[in-house]
Design brief:
single chain; alpha/beta; six-stranded mixed β-sheet
C-alpha cells in the first residue's frame, strides 16, 4: 500500500472568510494524515494547503512570509478577496503571489473566491468607484 502523504492546512483569516474555506478542506482528506491545521506558522509536511486573504492585490504579509520559506513542497493555494468578481483579477493576485514561491515547489492547485466584505470597507470602495 502506498504511504499516504502528510499535509498541513495553514491560513491567514482576519475576517473568518478564508478560515471557512480551510475548514471545508479540512473535512475532506484523511484527518490522521494532517500534521497541522491553523494559522500560518513554520511546520513540516509534504503537502501544504495555504489559505490567504487579499491585501492590495497580493496575499497578506503572513502568507507571503510562509511561502518564501517553503522549499521542495507541494502547494495548493486558496484565498478570498473582498472585492473583485472577475477571474482576471483573481489570476493577477495568484500570479503576484507566485513571485514569492521558490521554484523548487510544485503548485498543485489554486482556488479563489469572493469573501464577505465588511460594510464600512464596501462603502469606501463604492465611494472610490463613484
Amino acid at each position: 500500500m502506498m504511504e499516504q502523504e502528510r499535509y498541513s492546512i495553514l491560513y491567514s483569516s482576519p475576517t473568518g472568510n478564508t478560515k471557512m474555506l480551510a475548514e471545508a478542506i479540512h473535512d475532506t482528506p484523511a484527518e490522521e494524515d494532517c500534521d497541522y491545521f491553523g494559522p500560518c506558522k513554520k511546520v513540516d509536511s509534504d503537502m501544504f494547503y495555504i489559505g490567504f486573504w487579499t491585501d492590495k492585490g497580493n496575499a497578506d504579509a503572513a502568507t507571503l512570509k510562509l511561502l518564501e520559506a517553503l522549499k521542495n513542497k507541494k502547494i495548493f493555494l486558496f484565498g478570498t478577496a473582498g472585492f473583485g468578481v472577475s477571474e482576471e483579477y483573481f489570476q493577477r493576485i495568484l500570479n503576484n503571489m507566485k513571485t514569492s514561491i521558490d521554484a523548487s515547489n510544485t503548485i498543485v492547485g489554486e482556488h479563489m473566491c469572493q469573501g464577505k466584505m465588511p460594510q464600512s470597507v464596501r462603502d469606501r470602495y463604492v465611494k472610490m468607484k463613484a
